[in-house]
TrEMBL record:
Highest taxon, organism lineage: Bacteria
Organism: Flagellimonas pacifica
This protein's name: Cupin domain-containing protein
Listed InterPro entries: RmlC-like_jellyroll, RmlC_Cupin_sf
Length: 107
């Protein structure tokens, strides 16, 4: 068993802090935290797609999620748990300083 404290990156550090990276046979797991500053867009341009399934827990803050055509997909806020398919397009506007915990699963 490995136990770690949940800590977030400092505002001056990279926005993503990995807590665990585990490879078991054909499946890889990664868990970490993210700090997003109010007024930023993630990513700055376009959309992110990654080969992992994602579960994120919004600890505090608010993010306006976008469709690829630029329209609003919805809002993520404190207490929300989000599931994303592998390769699903992701982009959003950070409306409040946001802390979240993520788990990536790559089969």
């Amino acid at each position: 068993m490995v136990v770690k404290r949940i800590t977030y990156p400092l505002p001056k550090e990279h926005y993503n802090k990995s807590l665990f990276q585990i490879q078991k046979e054909q499946t890889a797991f990664q868990m970490g935290t993210v700090f997003l500053k109010k007024g930023t867009r993630i990513p700055e341009i376009g959309f992110t797609r990654h080969p992992s399934y994602e579960i994120s827990i919004i600890q505090k803050g608010k993010i306006e999620m976008l469709h690829e055509n630029g329209s609003i997909k919805g809002y993520l806020k404190s207490g929300d748990v989000v599931y994303l398919e592998a390769f699903e397009a992701q982009a959003g506007n950070v409306l409040e300083d946001t802390n979240l915990i993520y788990i990536l699963i790559k089969a």
